[in-house]
Amino acid sequence: PVALWLDCDTGHDDAFAILLSAQCPALRLLGISTIYGNAPLVKTTQNTRSILRAIGREDVPVYAGASKPFCRPAASAPDIHGESGLDGTTVLPEPGAPERTDMSAMLAMYKALIAEPPKTAWLVATGCLTNAALLFNTFPDVVDHIAGLTIMGGAVGGGFTNAPMGSLEGQGERFGNWTPFAEFNIYIDPESAQSIFSNPVLAAKTTVAPLDLTHQMLATPEICLELLYGFDAKVDDGTEASVLRVLFNQILTFFAKTYADVFGLTEGPPLHDPLAVAMVVFPDLFDDKGGERFAIKVVIDGEHGVDEIARTTSQCGRTILTPLKAGQAGVRVPRGLDAGLIWRILDL
Ligand code: BDR
Ligand code: CA
């Protein structure tokens, strides 16, 4: 199996990333580091441990990482994920195994990744990039050593072009989710994101799942039902779903409601985070048009908008993609995916 370390801010969609990383037979989960984001660090760490308990994988070590970005106050997303970061469940167990405190999350990530044979292990980031930036800047040798990095983050817009800054031409009116320009994971710590995308060796082994891709994976009511009973189940009136399937169904139900309330997206919520895991193990399910690669620049100038007006005009956290010439090394940002097959691999 392919070794990976998961860095997450558990969250509704992060819970599915944990499920896939911990249960997919083709993967070997080395450990999990947590980060502030969907909720404060204490809560995302507790949620992570609860999910691991629910799926019977408390053997996976959990280390709490950064509680805030370097240059900005910590943000969270209670409108989307509730106060706990994982609201809406009635069957989520309390964590059992304690979190690990024998070393820092950064050191635990380093030790686990460097202990694997060269160019075999992956880091998967489904929250903001503070922990990852700390790791790669403190231990640059890990950049060479790993097989790669996958990230859920960013928003491209219709273009996949090198649109001039400030221009929304060809990109629709809104392509971010936290601001019209920016996706949440990049917005809340743009400096860390930029430190990763501006490292050429690291960028060349990075794959990104931006909103443009994750919005091709909507958890429609039909998909939710398939996941509740299993895709191949023959359901009759008396069939009962397992507690684990009920838990993940409640997670999707809450996420669907907030996406409908906040974004007016009534078809179903996009299941962002497990895509960053799927990219490690099934890269061919993602279409990069025969090998397109990009340079990514993150807009970091500008305060975070403190009021509604600033929040709609600031471009802070925007990811600007420049397409590279064929054969040039850069970030892989697939434009399409095989949603049908990916839903099936989530049916664990
Ligand atoms: C990202 O932000 C969080 O709310 C989700 O968990 C996901 O990682 C989507 O913008
Ligand atoms: Ca997340």
TrEMBL record:
Alphabetical list of Pfam families matching this protein: IU_nuc_hydro
Q: Which GO terms describe its biological process?
A: purine nucleoside catabolic process
Alphabetical keyword list = Glycosidase, Hydrolase
Q: Has UniProt tagged this entry with the keyword Hydrolase? A: yes
Top-rank taxon: Eukaryota
| InterPro entries attached to this UniProt entry | Inosine/uridine_hydrolase_dom (IPR001910), IUNH (IPR023186), Ribo_hydro-like (IPR036452)
Task: Enumerate the residue ranges of region (Disordered).
Answer: 79-98
User: What is a single molecular function from GO for this protein?
Assistant: purine nucleosidase activity
Q: Which residues form the Inosine/uridine-preferring nucleoside hydrolase domain?
A: 4-343
Q: Name one GO cellular component term.
A: cytosol
Alphabetized Gene3D superfamilies for the sequence: Ribonucleoside hydrolase-like (3.90.245.10)
Q: Which family does it belong to?
A: Belongs to the IUNH family.
PANTHER family found in the cross-reference section: INOSINE-URIDINE PREFERRING NUCLEOSIDE HYDROLASE, URIDINE NUCLEOSIDASE
Q: What is this protein called?
A: Nucleoside hydrolase
Organism, scientific name: Aureobasidium namibiae CBS 147.97
